[in-house]
Amino acid sequence: MAPGREAGHNARMNRAAAVLAAAAMCGACADLPRKAAVEVADRWSPPSAAAAKRLIELYGPPDDAQLNRLTWNRKGPWLRTAVWNRPQVYRSPRDFDLVEQTVRYPVSREKAAELVAFSGALLVDVAKGEMSSRASREEVNFLNLNLADEVVRGRKTVDEARVAYKRILELTAAGKSSAYVGGLRFDGKGAP
Question: Is the pLDDT at 38 greater than 90, yes or no?
Answer without folding.
Answer: no
